[in-house]
Amino acid sequence: MTKVYNFSAGPATLPEEVLDIAQKELKDYQNSGISVMEMSHRSSSYIEIHQEAADLLKDLMKMPENYKVLFLGGGASTQFAMVPLNLMTDSKQADYVVTGSWSKKALDEAKRFGDATGNISSEADDFTTIPDLKSAKFRDNLDYIHITTNNTIYGTVIAPEDLPETKDTPLVADMSSNILSQAYPTEDFGLIYAGAQKNLGIAGVTIVILNPDILKEPLEFTPKMLNYKTHIEKDSMFNTPPTYPIYISKLVFQWIKEQGGAEAMEARNREKAALLYDYLDESKLFKPVVDKNYRSLMNVTFVTGDKDLDAKCAKEAEANGLLNIKGHRSVGGMRASIYNAMPIEGVKTLVNFLKDFETDNK
Ligand SMILES: *Cc1c(COP(=O)(O)O)cnc(C)c1O
Fold first, then answer.
1. Which of 21, 86, 100, 158 has the fewest C-beta atoms lying within 10 Å of its C-beta?
2. Would you say the C-alpha torsion 42, 47, 53, 59 has a positive or negative sign?
3. 102: annotated active-site residue
4. What digits encode the pLDDT tens for the residues 231-262?
5. Could you tell which of 99, 149, 152 is best to mutate to test the pocket of ligand 1, judged by most ligand atoms within 8 Å of the CB?
6. Is the whole-model pTM more than 0.85?
7. Exposure pattern of 248-260 as b/e (b: 16+ CB <10 Å)?
8. How far apart are CA 179 and CA 266, in angstroms?
9. How far is the CA of 95 from the centre of ligand 1 (A)?
C-alpha cells in the first residue's frame, strides 16, 4: 500500500499510534477475551476506560476542579439545541458571534427557544475574517455568549488572545475543530463542546466540558436526555454511552499527553501551518483565502482563482495519495485540514505536490 495522507475535515485522520493500539486490542481488550465494542457499559473494564478518558481530558484541558466532562451522543449539532435549552432560561437572550456556517446553524437553532441574535458577524466579509470581539458591543443581560473558536469550512480561528471579555456572562464555545490544538483558558468558558471526529477521535461521541455553576433549571419542555444535569448526575451513564468512540478518544488523549499536551500540539501545529501558509503566500498560482490575522491552524483554505484548475488540483492530489483537499461544497477551492494527528511529513508532501503543480500549470 502506498502512503497516503488524509486531509479530510472530518471524520479525519487519526494518530497512527492510536490505530495500532486499537488494532491490537480490537478482539481482545487487555486479556479480557472480548472487544471493547462487546463490553457492558457497567463492567469494571469499561468503567475504567470511561473514567480514565474523563481524567485525561481534565488534565489536558487544565480544567478547574468543579468542572464536569460529559460524553454524549448526537454530535455537536445536538449541542446547538442543548445549549439554549439549558442556558437560555433567565433573560432568554443570547448573543451568537456568527463567523461561519456552523455558528449560523447554532444561532438558527437557538432562535427556536428564545431571543438569540447574530449581529456580531463576519458574514458581510464572506466569513474571511473575525469581528474584533474585544470592542464588540454585546447586549446587556444575556444568558450567555456563543462563539465558534475554529471555522472549519472557511478556515478562520478565534485565537485565545482574541476571545471576548464577557465578565459574568458565561462564554459558550463550539470547539469541534480545534479543541486541544492549542491551549485555551478553560476557566474562561462556561461551556465547551466538540464532536470528537475532527481532533479527538471518531464520530459518535460529543465532548462537553462545563462549569455546573452556570446551570439553572432548563426550559420546562426540555427532554430528560437533553438536560445536562441528567448526564452530570449519572456520569454520562444515564443511558448507554457511545462506548467504542469514548475508548478511541481515551487513546487520543493518551497520545496527546505523550506528545506534551496542548502546548506541544500548538507548537507542532504552528510549524505545520506555517509551512503551508508560507508557501501559499509566495506562490504565484495559489492564494490563501482568509485574513492573515485570523488564519486557522487546522483548516487551510486556498484557491487558484480558476474553478477548473482548482478541480484539477484536487483530483491530481488525490491520485498522488493526498486525499480530500477539495474545499467544502459551499465555498469551493481547496481546503487542507491539518489537525493534531496530521504528521509534518504530510504537510511537507502536500507543499511539494503544490509546488510541482504550480510548475506544471504556469
Ligand atoms: C463538524 C462541525 C460541527 C458538526 O458536528 P456534528 O458532530 O456533525 O454535529 C459543528 N461545529 C463545528 C465547528 C464543526 O466543525
1. 21
2. positive
3. yes
4. 999 999 999 999 999 999 999 999 999 999 99
5. 152
6. yes
7. bbbbbbbbbeebe
8. 11
9. 19
